[in-house]
Amino acid sequence: MNQEIPFGTRLIGQTEKTLNAILERLLAGSGVSEPQWVALATIRHSPAPSTEVVAATLKITPSEAAARAVEPLTTAGLVDEGAGGLTLTTDGRDFVDGIQRQVVDITDRLWGDIPQADRDTAAAVLSLVRERASDELAGLSR
User: Partner of 45 at 20 to 30 A CA spacing, among 5, 52, 73, 140?
Assistant: First the structure.
């Protein structure tokens, strides 16, 4: 059943929940949680990955990022933590690359037939809202 939901928090929330459910199914059986996946992707794509960068991405403190993401991923053999920061191990890179291939395929099915101009507009709007939400979060943390 395809139900039109008016623009607002319900639509945004249900979209986010559905996308997270897809990710959870892709991660099923791997032992990697959603925050840990975000940490892996952040480490893979950051020019200078660190626990602080992971924390900023997850919107949590560095100590929480270490406990909930970095340390379990290091124990699992997916991440190395050294003087140069965080790096993915060979197993970590293989895992991230495998999940990302699936995500790219799904993303293409979700967005592929939407005109580029509409995707550009969606990206601009989502980026603006993400920035504003980050500012709101910072205000709530004061």
Answer: 140
